[in-house]
Write a structure and sequence with these properties.
The chain is an alpha/beta fold and 414 residues long. The chain has twelve helices and twelve strands. The protein binds iron/sulfur cluster.
Length: 414
């Protein structure tokens, strides 16, 4: 098993880990509940402030574990109330997360990878390349850090920030279990949404997990030719396979799936595209979010409002529920497809054309560990240890496979 980037971090411990830890240091198991309450409910990260532990135990904890929290090193505020944070995780990765306000409710959009290997040409994250997967703790800690920063609980979590969650499935599911555990953060499963570009093994794994979190799929195109361009992993998981995976998912879970469809001017927003989408989604229980595309630098323009409405009317007349999603945080590049995690960007991989059917396999590391080297960040020198630097040099199977395909081919963007 690969080791964690920072295995001593308190944010990497789930409840069972804490029970084992306290047992190993000769303490009763109820200590696990106490420390989880401090970290995940009260957002207290300094053992000196954990007042129901005696002085000796506090000193022992400080000696054995790394209590250094993740840090927010930049914050941008949008006119619409959306906030974007550049975070240095406890594993020293820099990722961006956003916090979106809907009335009194807050939704956190968490990152799952440093960069993204999928490489959608309209997406700033994909354009910035890929460094590594985040661990379960690095994903979960983003939520509690934002809650501490804004001084209140966050109501919903979407795994829709930097990265493709189902290329890091084990770590994503671990993070959700930690945040869902009533002995830890206790956020209900129906308050989580995983958004995928259509990695079908991840969809199957989510169904099999029995977790009950919500699923969204970024579709963006109603035929394979167009989707190969817009979402390059479509060459690995074409639409026929994706639709079959969604049908199986719905048979297993009974859940409705949200379909995200970003509309790009004269690219995927015609009447014929809308009719193709109706045929593609026939027989699925879905809710379609139409997203007028956000600004990007690769020439994909936002559809005209009348074209968005016309597209929606085709869906509605075919009986599909649909809404046109309001943009959040566009003025601070916090909207969908705009997160970049500045300073972590490695050069974008060469554009790729993959052979249809060539597989991008799921990551095999049980807790989403491993990945490419983590760039050292002097600003987080206070972290105590990062024991396994050798382990961090090993990208996961799926990412390696994707990189090999990219470097051995040429062709369209993405
Ligand atoms: S849109 Fe999603 S899957 Fe595509 S490159 Fe961006 S983060 Fe990755």
């Amino acid at each position: 098993m690969d080791k964690l980037i920072n295995e001593n971090s308190i944010f990497e411990h789930d409840f069972d880990d804490w029970v084992k830890f306290f047992s190993a240091v000769g303490q009763p198991s109820y200590r696990a509940g106490q420390i989880c309450a401090w970290i995940w409910r009260r957002r207290v990260f300094d053992p000196e402030d954990m007042t129901d532990f005696g002085k000796d135990l506090r000193a022992r904890l400080a000696e054995l574990l790394d209590f250094s929290p993740p840090e927010i090193i930049r914050e941008d505020k949008s006119r619409d109330g959306t906030r974007k944070f550049l975070i240095v995780t406890t594993g020293r990765a820099k990722v961006e997360t956003t916090l979106i306000k809907h009335g009194e409710r807050l939704t956190a959009c968490l990152s799952t990878q440093v960069g993204c290997p999928v490489g959608c040409p309209f997406c700033a994250t994909g354009s910035a390349g890929f460094e590594r997967n985040l661990s379960g703790g690095e994903i979960a800690e983003q939520l509690v850090l934002m809650e501490k920063h804004v001084g209140r609980e966050i109501n919903n979590v979407v795994l829709m920030g930097m990265g493709e969650p189902f290329l890091n499935t084990d770590a994503v599911l671990r993070a959700i279990r930690m945040l869902n555990d009533p002995k830890m953060r206790g956020l209900g499963v129906r308050h989580f949404t995983i958004s995928t570009a259509g990695i079908t093994p991840g969809i199957a794994a989510l169904a099999a997990s029995g977790l009950g979190v919500r699923l969204a799929v970024s579709l963006h195109a109603p035929n394979d030719e167009l989707r190969d361009e817009l979402i390059p992993c479509n060459t690995n998981y074409p639409l026929k396979e994706l639709v079959a995976a969604l049908k199986n998912y719905q048979i297993t879970t009974g859940d409705r799936v949200t379909i995200e469809y970003a509309l790009f001017k004269k690219k995927n927003d015609s009447l014929e595209h809308a009719r193709q989408l109706v045929r593609l989604l026939h027989g699925l229980h879905v809710y379609v979010n139409l997203i007028p595309a956000n600004e990007n630098k690769n020439g994909y323009e936002r559809s005209a409002p009348e074209d968005v409405l016309r597209f929606q009317s085709i869906l509605k007349s075919a009986g599909f529920e649909s809404e046109i999603r309001a943009e959040h945080g566009g003025d601070i590049t916090a909207a969908c497809g705009q997160l970049k995690g500045e300073e972590n960007a490695s050069p974008r991989p060469e554009p790729a054309t993959r052979e249809r059917g060539e597989r991008m396999s799921e990551q095999k590391t049980p807790r989403g560990r491993g990945g490419a080297p983590c760039r050292k960040n002097p600003s987080v020198g206070k972290l105590k240890s990062s024991k396994n630097t050798n382990d961090t040099k090993r990208p996961n199977d799926s990412t390696n496979a994707m990189r090999r395909r990219r470097s051995s081919s040429n062709g369209r963007a993405g």
